Amino acid sequence: TQGVSSAASDVYKRQRLQYLLTNGGDEEGKEVQRQIQALSQRQQDMLPRFRNAENQRLINQQIELIAQYQQAFDKTQAAYVTSRQTRTSMVELADRASELIDRVREEVGRSAAGSETGFARYQAIARTEDDVQTLRYYVLTYTADVSAQTEQALNQQIERVGQGLNLLTSVFTGEYRDEVQQLQNTLNDYRSLLNTYRTVTEQRVQMREAMTEQAREIVKGSEALLAMQATLRDQDTASANQMICLLYTSPSPRD
Fold it and tell me: How many CB atoms lie within 10 A of CB 47?
């Protein structure tokens, strides 16, 4: 059982590294998977060796806890995969939006001087550029620190981007309509992916919390097994001592 406790502690420590540090790398994920499977196999191997009903109950409880831990890990791993794929697509869309913004801004900039309409268009596209860059920054901040504060800042910037798009549509009529429509579609797609990203990020955080609690329960179960073995050893020692006393104090057949 000492090996069980040590193995459980190892899994717990690994999990406290936030399932392999920051973004669930594939190689680190394989190592955690190996550790979970090894720990589960140890429990299965130990079960036939114990005849005490309480020991068997504790080991079966460990087997169930490890199975739950495995399920949480699988969900966390899937969330990391979706998160990485979504972020890659978001970066591509943001880069595409920046290209469209640069193209429209350059063309509008050449005709903005001396034109009230041109100046309004230039201001609108400049605002959109600033809004998009700020949104990307808030996405990074939210990724690094998922909290109510960073989520609120992200929500506010998403709303601001939407307002900027409405302004952009209102001042760009006729000329550049195709480019503006492409930009609007690109940013709408970006915001849609952002919602997906936020959902899987929240799932990831929840699964990490579940894994942390399950790991604690696994360690507690291992400690209970150790305590039970110590109790049984003490009882066996007491019984042996009592038997020895009886042997020495019993009347001799010659008496």
Answer: 14
Per-residue pLDDT of 100-125, as tens digits, reads 999 888 888 777 666 788 888 888 88
Q: Element (H or E) spanning 202, and its range? A: helix 177-249
Q: Give the pLDDT score at 209.
A: 85
C-alpha count within 13 angstroms, C-beta hemisphere, residue 14: 20
Nearest to 139, CA basis, from 75, 82, 90? 90
Closest-CA residue to 136 (of 100, 83, 164, 98): 98
Helix (H/G/I), strand (E/B), else coil: 250: coil
Residues 157, 237: Cα–Cα separation, whole Å: 70
CA distance 110 to 127: 17
Compute the distance between CA of residue 125 and CA of residue 129 in angstroms, rounded to an integer: 6
**In the block, residue with structure tokens 């990490």:** 208
Rounded distance between C-alpha atoms, residue 184 and residue 240, angstroms: 84
Distance of alpha carbon 29 from alpha carbon 23, whole angstroms: 10
Helices (H), 145-176: 148-171
Contact criterion met (CB below 8 Å) for 169 and 160:
no
pLDDT at 44 over 70: yes
Q: Where are the alpha helices (DSSP H) in 47-115?
A: 53-112
Q: Are 93 and 189 in contact (CB under 8 A)?
A: yes
With contact defined as beta carbons under 8 Å apart, do 167 and 180 qualify? no
Residue 142's Cβ-count burial label (10 Å; 0-12, 13-18, 19+) is buried
**Count of beta carbons in the 10 Å neighbourhood of residue 81:** 14
Q: Rg of the Cα trace of the chain?
A: 32
The pLDDT tens digits of the residues spanning 29-40 come to: 777 788 888 888
